[in-house]
Amino acid sequence: MTWMSWLLLPIVGAAGGFMAGMLGVGGGIIFIPLLTWLFGTLGLPQEEIVRYTLANSILLVVVSGLTGTWKQYRLGEWQWRKVLSIGLPGAVVSYAITYAIQHGDWYSKPRFNLVFLFFLAISLANMIFGKKQDSENQTAKENPILAVFVGVLAGAVVALSGLGGGVIMVPLFRMLLKMPMRQATALSLSIIPILGIAPLSGYLLAHNATILPFLHTGYIAWPYALPMAAGVAVFATRGMKAAKRISETTLRIIFAILSSIVIVKTLYDIFS
């Protein structure tokens, strides 16, 4: 790794962590393009590029979620009952899909890119066209069945895209459960670790990962993951603070701009 890589990795981690804290999406839309490029330069088979990218992105979104959860806990804002009721069913689905990805060659890089784009497009459309909630203080709709459905769908998103699940949870919390933006982002951020820990453990314990020319445990590449994780841990709480000072409209615009940039970049990679 060059000095440029050591400089770039924590900067990208900081940007992803800040965005995760501000928007509740885990930061995967920042991490994944860089990780895909880094593992692509190592000459790995396409299926292994996907697995390494998913594993390390999931690790980073778990770090961002844990940082946010700890901040919520200290402020007395952590809704642990709601987090567990939504997160645990999603974690089961996330682990099952991850197991299938690890033990088969059906999930290629082109399919991964298409899934990644699909979920980003859904999230982007909601941020642009979704109805703004009338009040940040309004009471969210209580519907345990819909809440579990959102968690299960988010678990599938984590396993298939490495995005952390927030790109689905935040829009669906707003659409189905009528949550204000800030409440949706806070709840999403605290659910992300539960969705990610089960598949992350599978990637860490994997014995069939292609050997890399540097230290790795299973599919976790430590020279990439650690500098990015440091940036995530430091800046996730700063993103949470920023979210409290920014209007919902501004948050939606920021999310839409970032999503659009990543969509264009991924489309360019596919067709080039």
Question: Descriptors for this entry?
Answer:
two-stranded antiparallel sheet; single chain; mainly alpha; globular
Q: Can you walk me through this structure?
A:
The protein is an all-alpha fold and 272 residues long. It has one domain (3-271). The protein contains ten helices and two strands, in the order H-H-H-H-H-H-H-H-E-E-H-H. It has helices at 3-23, 28-40, 46-75, 80-102, 109-129, 144-161, 166-176, 181-204, 222-245, 248-271; strands at 216-217, 220-221. Strands 1-2 form a two-stranded antiparallel ribbon. A hairpin with a 2-residue loop joins strand 1 (216-217) and strand 2 (220-221). Helix 1 (3-23) runs antiparallel to helix 2 (28-40), helix 4 (80-102) packs parallel to helix 6 and helix 4 (80-102) packs across helix 8 (181-204). The longest helix is centred in the N-terminal third of the chain and has 30 residues, at 46-75. The radius of gyration is 17 Å and the shape is globular. The two termini are 26 Å apart. The mean pLDDT is 84.
- Basic shape: globular
- The succession of helices and strands, N to C, reads HHHHHHHHEEHH
- Helical fraction equals over 70%
End-to-end CA span: 26 Å
Structural class given helices, strands, pairing? mainly alpha
Count of the separate structural domains: 1
Low-confidence runs of at least 5 consecutive residues: none
Summary, kept brief:
This protein is mostly helical. The protein has helices spanning 3-23, 28-40, 46-75, 80-102, 109-129, 144-161, 166-176, 181-204, 222-245, 248-271; strands at residues 216-217, 220-221. The longest helix is centred in the N-terminal third of the chain and has 30 residues, at 46-75.
